[in-house]
Amino acid sequence: MMLPLKRFWAMVIVLTAPAWLLTCGKEPTSSIWNPQWQGRPDPVISRVEPAEGAFAGIGLVTLYGENFSSDAAENHVYFDGVSAEILSASTTSVQVKAPNITGDSVRIKLRVDGAILFAEWYPYRLEPAAIEWGDFDQFDDAYAIACDKDENVYVSLKGKKIVRVTPDGERQEYATSLADKASGMKIGPDGSIYYVNILPFMFRIPPQGNDGLFARLPGGAFDLDFGPNGNIYCGGSGKALYRVKTDGSSEVAADYGNVTIRTVRVFNGYVYVGGKDGDTGQHNVWRNQILSATELGPKELYFEWSNKIGAHADLLSLTFAEDGDMYVGTNAPEAIFVVHPDGSFEPLYPGVIEPETYAMTWGNGPYLYVNRRSVDPKKKKIIRINMLKNGAPYFGRK
Description:
Structural class: mainly beta
CATH class of the largest domain: Mainly Beta
Radius of gyration: 32 Å
Low-confidence stretches: 1-27
Number of strands: 34
Strand content: over 45%
CATH architecture of the largest domain: 6 Propeller
Largest sheet: 5 strands, mixed
Shape: elongated
Helix content: under 10%
CATH topology of the largest domain: Neuraminidase
Number of domains: 2
Distance between the termini: 121 Å
């Protein structure tokens, strides 16, 4: 009698399975577990310095503890999941540069190659080194800025407006200007705002007063700065540096050939000038020594901007710290460069500050205020940067 087909195949499987299982049993087995492997001891963080927190993107943070690796590449540190740059390492400490994230409750994790578990530290504070200041928006078109002795920041807006931002960040309407906007602006010893706007004129706005013409200039001026003896030095398209006296009279202080002057700053007995040489097409920083109230020394080249930074970077503004470091604003991806007295240079706070740095003014302490202009209206802002040091003395603030 013939078996049904389904029953036949079932019997075939049952009869052949033992042989198949025996064959499989002869194959070698493999396992991811290695009983001989011994991992490193897990790292432990016992303290973090500075304990009160650090600045995002620039701060140096040191983790102390045990079971770290002396090989920096074998340590991996994360702030809320964002990798930090390892600067140095030993078995008991790891120093990193904080990533550019902010928060009051940041979680730090440290992993060591070969260890199973992470070390953790929580909470930690990372505060921004640069913040938006004064509540400016895409409809504000800002140009020159200045700061008084009380840390009020004045901003010239296109449309004949000057607004004031108080030390607590409150924005206030301040004055109406005769010119549509100021290209360069400073606070004078009398508390007045002095400004230029490319044209051969200098204007003055007394405290809570009306704008008026202060001086007629030998040529156009883009920027200005106060020097000793109450003199104001300014320059622009006129191919010369001008001196404006306290009575409003003006004269040529130094010939600048075919240089178009963009920015002026007085520091440590010199008038520094940033501009573009029309003969070479290069941007540079020059300076003239102040010999007396009526005389400047010859022009001397101080820093070859285009040769060292690159022809792609325009020189837009400059200022000084009290230690002699010069800060130059530009439209390059790294928006501000610091030039040290020995001639060495590097970008300020890489990855933290966006271009372009149209104008800068240092406050009375560690804050540098920057007008960040941009082709994107939403990025046009006034930025306050904590420089961790003071600016150079300024003759206009008393």
